[in-house]
Design goal:
GO terms for molecular function: catalytic activity. One of its GO terms (biological process) is DNA repair. By secondary structure, the protein is mainly α. It has helices at about 5-15, 25-35, 40-50, 70-80, 95, and strands at about 25, 60, 85, 90. α1 (about 5-15) packs across α3 (about 40-50) and α2 (about 25-35) crosses α3 (about 40-50).
Length: about 100
């Protein structure tokens, strides 16, 4: 499937998230912008909604660690299986947030 450049850039970042770690929509947008693209947290969310099934979608959470709406239980199960720590119903972002090295 041929993807728009923006979607390809977002999905490439998501594919780089290691098991047991997560990134927020905003952090992914930051990486895409640093690579010369144009992105916002909202546009990352749109890409994930349309094409996220192609990658480890459950490793993408919002800025406070909430898993994707409508997929909370499945995402939590997949993240827990990878050892991602939670604080209540949210990912413990201090422990699990990841950002690629420069």
């Amino acid at each position: 499937m041929e993807l728009p450049d923006h979607a390809d850039a977002v999905l490439s970042v998501v594919e780089s998230i290691p098991p047991g770690r997560v990134m927020s929509y905003g952090a992914i947008a930051d990486v895409v912008r640093a690579q010369g693209g144009v992105a916002s947290a909202r546009s990352v969310g749109t890409v994930m909604a349309r094409y996220g099934g192609m990658v480890c979608w459950y490793r993408v959470v919002n800025s406070v660690g909430r898993t994707p709406l409508g997929h909370e239980l499945r995402a939590r199960a997949l993240l827990a299986a990878e050892g991602v720590p939670f604080r209540g119903d949210r990912v413990d972002m201090r422990a699990a947030a990841w950002y690629p090295e420069d």
